[in-house]
Amino acid sequence: MRTFVGMILGALLLVFGVYVYDSMRTSSVASGQVAQASRTLVNWDVVAEDWKALKTRAHDDWVKLSSR
Would you state the torsion angle of the CA atoms of residues 30, 32, 37, 41, taken in this order, to the nearest 10 degrees? Predict the structure, then answer.
């Protein structure tokens, strides 16, 4: 059980770390005179759309299962 919880926490920490890294590289604070043009590691717009589709599908499936 500890291993499973550790894997979940590690995955969450990884996603949080990548999000913070991307937001710092593309923030207005980090785009001063010495900032380099850089791309983000993750296309967060696509992630948001996929997350919304996943939530919608899960909700629809839950409604379908609970109506039986």
Answer: 0
What sign does the dihedral 43-47-53-56 (CA atoms) show?
A: negative
Residue predicted with more confidence, 39 or 46: 46
Q: How far, in Å, CA of 35 to CA of 25, rounded? A: 9
Q: Is 11 exposed, middle or buried (0-12, 13-18, 19+ CB in 10 A)?
A: exposed
Residues 38 and 25 sit within 8 Å (Cβ to Cβ): yes
**Token code pair at residue 68:** 């039986």
pTM for the full predicted model: 0.51
CA distance 31 to 38: 10
